[in-house]
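Feature request disguised as a bug report, sorry. It would help if multi-protein outputs had a clear separator. Right now it looks like this:
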Amino acid sequence: MKASIALLPGDGIGPEVTVEAVRCLQSVARRFEHQFEFHEALLGGAAIDVTGEPLPAATLAACRSADAVLMGAIGGPRWSHPDAPVRPEQGLLALRRELGVYANLRPVAPHAALLDATPLKPDVIRGVDIMVVRELTGGIYFGAKTRTATQASDLCEYTVAEIERVTRVAGALAMQRRRQVTSVDKANVLETSRLWRTVVERVLREEFPQLRLEHMLVDAAAMHLLRKPRDFDVLLTENMFGDILTDEASMLAGSLGLLPSASLGATRKGLYEPIHGSAPDIAGQGIANPYGAILSAALLLRHSLELHEEAAALENAVSRSIENGFLTADVVDGTARACSSREAGASVADIVADSG
């Protein structure tokens, strides 16, 4: 297969982790005899520095012409002070909207070798396997915004069609898993959540009658994620709630640096990125965890390129690398030596190459 991949390294540690993801994709290409072409472009703070815009037209054009988009983190304090007229995050939100990627998939499955890396007891997180489906292009992040010297507002708005389409994604995924969907909302307070609950219930009842559906208020879900995370299978949520809950869920895995994401729409083209931020405090030190970025590349192989064997090979290589002790400082305990980003990425790439 020949595929074109738009590469958006971003800011902070973004370039350091995406280069390792590319290294691993190149190893996959060599082993399975594919040809992946990478086209690098600017997004976020790096784009603001060069062009004054967080999403330059050339970047959007590159993403539209590619088969998939792989990106690192964006943002940082130098661009995000309260009065900044242009922010890196505006570029990411605009890119999601322009590509029409409305469903964000965030798998959370702690590795057995890292059960002690989390602040929770191993017995609580052992066997956890959650797929969070977060609506990505609606809600409060995209609503009308106002600000004066004395007040500010952000409009949270959802349409029936927006809720229907992301619910169908969650339903289809649940059919391939344990056939359970937990829909998260704040229906005791918010009208958008009442609409959310009504639409989710109707779509799953009519189109996925085999599934079990549970509604849960977001505050209860936040507590349940820490008390009984094994109870969750597919977790369906609107945009802001999903953003917050998946950061919380990262502690089940041990680190934000371990978790990937895939943002999908109506076509095979997707946007793939680790869920962590740009971590400017460690940028340039070569110690960032690249596994989230590498696992995002595996999701790219599976969902955009439909290379399922290759995706599994890359995910297995990450698992074996962790088992072999290639752990960065965010998950290593006090008695072991932490490896560098490059060492972790090279380990995965070597395992892919040697397992052919």
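(second protein starts here, but nothing in the output says so)
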Amino acid sequence: MKKQVVIIYRAQHFSPNSVEKDRAILDEVATCLQPWADVYRFSEDTWDDEQLKSTPKDTVLSMARSSHVLEALSQQDSTVKIINTPQGVRHCSRMIVHQTISRLQLPLPPSSGVDGYWLKRADISAQTVGDVQFLKNEEQLTEAIHKLPEKGVKDFVVSAHVKGDLIKFYGVRHTPFFQYGYPTDLGQTKFGLEQYNGIAHHYAFSVDQLRSDANRLAEELGVDVYGGDCIVREDGSYCLIDFNDWPSFSWCREEAARAIAELVKQKWT
């Protein structure tokens, strides 16, 4: 008998400049699950609690981030497998991620330096350019922090700018899948902030260590499908600067989709 799988597309305002890419990964996973499962599709933008309740489901694959959808998913029967879980998604707020990296003693950027600062809104994922700001010095940083209440921002994270290669990484826990790449090589950008680290030099570093650190963080936060960013310094050391639930896997979509589909099947064996 086929399994019943519900997929939930992310709301457009949670996918700045990435709406089609975010939708594409779920579509690719759905393709991989056929003919093993019947797939039902929902959108966070047009969410209907009653429609979800009336739809048969063994597994939910959700990219949703809004509080009302996460609450609805939290009310599902415990037999329903949810990837990523509502609790895991909530744990991926920037403040909790920052605190968890620190508690696990994983590599973080320093809190101060001479090459500028990053000021990041910490209560939600970045949705506009202003949610992540580069400031040249402490004076600019102080001024920007003072303006945050005017924007309704109470929680924020500050870190020093780190020179080195900007790397994006993607993973699917409980599978061999782990990929990394250089946004400047791939010509990919969300808000154009990659310019502050410039063209990648491809400094050598331990991919195995990054994979281990990323999986450890994902396990602690409670997410199976994840992505993140790090900076690799010239000496091969690195620091984690971002981590999030369910990225678009844009340059390795087919391979990631196969891994996610395998993860779904694992949960029913």
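Even a blank line would do. Unrelated, but nice: The chain has a mean pLDDT of 93.
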